[in-house]
Amino acid sequence: METNNPVIPQIYDVTWSAVAIAYVALVVVAFVSLSRTAPRLSPWLAVAWVALIVVVPILGAVAWLAIGRRAVPGERLPR
Questions:
Q1: What's the rounded mean pLDDT across residues 39-61?
Q2: How far apart are CA 27 and CA 4, in angstroms?
Q3: How far apart are CA 21 and CA 23, in angstroms?
Q4: CA distances from 9 to 1, 20, 43 (A)
């Protein structure tokens, strides 16, 4: 019994597996970052970011990591 697919070379399986792992890791990192920043966001803005990450996973996660978390006002240290 042969386990190799004669139509698709094995490198494609490995490549798509790596892409899938990277995709899941990106979405998990975005959700963890969002959850750590959520207390400083308004509830509606946090829900909007979650919806964006869920509906458009790659673009939403990249947008949060590139734009969203930098736009959140940080806590200022007392002088």
A1: 90
A2: 31
A3: 5
A4: 17, 18, 48
